[in-house]
């Protein structure tokens, strides 16, 4: 049976890929995208997806109770999937306030309207960063769903706050929630402030590639389409009130990623420039996703080499998308979309 799905943050990296995934996998579903088009949102990313009349887009802020109420009332979605967030750790260190507003207050506004109109499932897209970090010399340690929350940055603290609120809405108001905590994603349409697209866009232009500290910080990388599948699977098969870890079983240090990009693009390692480390920089993240596998049958399908090849090729083929971000032209397209 077809579903009506409200996707917030759908003009960003993972949200847009989730919309493409739904359109391919469940073409009968109706999708409503809500995004306020901050600097990280790009309406041009959704141009093709919006040609389908099963997708409606609203430029609106998830903190705006009146707008969220009106949209949810109008469509009565079966599911709400909340991707909308301030997502860049460095920005959260410079200005934590907006992270608290969007990531915590915005999530609570959405859950209030989800309770009011009785949605079937509210899915909160969270992150492995809520668990803090792991030592580099203990490869046996992985984050499970029972690992205590132990955040390092205002970003991860705001995401942990939203997770706790979601659990509280489940217990207090009976809201059917699920939470996914995923490791680092990579793939098409990622804003070039994040490691992989930043390094690709700089390497293409023969610019210096800034690498934090010693470059040995380790992340577990997952191709974005695999994350989208995990969320879709949780929506349809996940148990209400449950948290699911999602990861790639693919740990790589930042410097290895940068070297791989340079090698693929046939650029010299002399472009690498080590810069002062990020404050409070987490050393290592690693995810145990056996619950996702055991309960839902999900496993990552895209190998890292294959995923990176596709990703680098995508940025080469879509250099105009990157250029319109670096010269600010995409902001003009965003500003043409009126606020709801
Ligand atoms: P992103 O920054 O690319 O996209 C965020 C989107 O949210 C943008 O389109 C932005 O315009 C929108 N937005 C921001 N504030 C809003 C508001 N107040 N109202 C409405 N829309 C708003 O982020 P992303 O990388 O796609 O991440 C999406 C979600 O996934 C986030 O919640 C993030 O915490 C989580 N996550 C990301 C990763 C990753 O590797 N990128 C990994 C795990 C979890």
Percent of residues in beta strands?
A: 15-25%
Task: Classify the fold: give the CATH topology of the domain at 4-188 and 220-250 and 284-302.
Answer: Rossmann fold
Radius of gyration over C-alpha positions, nearest whole angstrom: 19 Å
List the bound ligands.
Answer: nicotinamide-adenine-dinucleotide
Poorly predicted ranges (pLDDT <50, ≥5 residues)? none
Biggest sheet overview: 7 strands, parallel
The CATH fourth-level homologous superfamily of the domain at 4-188 and 220-250 and 284-302: NAD(P)-binding Rossmann-like Domain
The helical percent reads: 40-55%
How far the N terminus sits from the C terminus, by CA atoms, comes to: 30 Å
Query: At CATH's second level, what is the architecture of the domain at 4-188 and 220-250 and 284-302?
Result: 3-Layer(aba) Sandwich
Structural class of the helices, strands and pairings? alpha/beta
Tally the beta strands.
12
Which word captures the global form? globular
Number of helices: 12
Tell me the series of helices and strands, N- to C-terminal: EHEEHEHHEHEEHEEHEEHEHHHH
Please identify the top-level CATH class of the domain at 4-188 and 220-250 and 284-302: Alpha Beta
Lateral arrangement of strands in the main beta sheet = 3-2-1-4-5-6-10
In round numbers, the mean pLDDT is: 98
């Amino acid at each position: 049976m077809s579903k009506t799905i409200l996707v917030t943050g759908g003009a960003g990296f993972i949200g847009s890929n989730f919309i493409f995934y739904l359109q391919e996998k469940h073409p009968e579903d109706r999708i409503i995208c809500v995004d306020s088009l901050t600097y990280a949102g790009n309406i041009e990313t959704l141009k093709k997806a919006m040609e389908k009349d099963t997708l409606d887009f609203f430029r609106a802020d998830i903190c705006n109770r009146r707008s969220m109420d009106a949209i949810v009332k109008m469509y009565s979605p079966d599911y709400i999937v909340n991707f909308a967030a301030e997502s860049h750790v460095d920005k959260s260190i410079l200005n934590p306030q907006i992270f608290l507003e969007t990531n915590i207050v915005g999530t609570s506004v959405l859950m209030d309207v989800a309770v009011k109109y009785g949605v079937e499932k509210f899915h909160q897209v969270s992150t492995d960063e809520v668990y803090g970090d792991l030592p580099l010399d203990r490869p046996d340690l992985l984050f499970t769903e029972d690992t205590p929350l132990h955040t390092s940055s205002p970003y991860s603290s705001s995401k942990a706050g939203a997770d706790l609120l979601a659990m509280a809405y489940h217990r207090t108001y009976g809201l059917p929630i699920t939470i996914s905590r995923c490791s680092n994603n990579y793939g098409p349409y990622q804003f070039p402030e994040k490691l992989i697209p930043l390094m690709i866009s700089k390497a293409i232009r023969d610019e210096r590639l800034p690498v934090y500290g010693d470059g040995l910080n380790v992340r577990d990388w997952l191709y974005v389409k695999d994350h989208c599948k995990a969320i879709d699977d949780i929506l349809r098969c996940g148990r209400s009130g449950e948290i699911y870890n999602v990861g790639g079983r693919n740990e790589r240090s930042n410097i290895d990623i940068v070297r791989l990009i340079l090698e693929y693009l046939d650029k010299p390692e002399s472009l690498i420039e080590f810069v002062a480390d990020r404050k409070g920089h987490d050393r290592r993240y690693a995810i145990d996703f056996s619950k996702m596998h055991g309960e839902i049958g999900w496993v990552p399908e895209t190998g890292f080499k294959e995923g990176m090849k596709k990703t680098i090729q995508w940025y080469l083929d879509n250099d105009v998308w990157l250029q319109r971000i670096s010269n600010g032209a995409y902001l003009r397209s965003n500003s043409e979309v009126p606020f709801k």
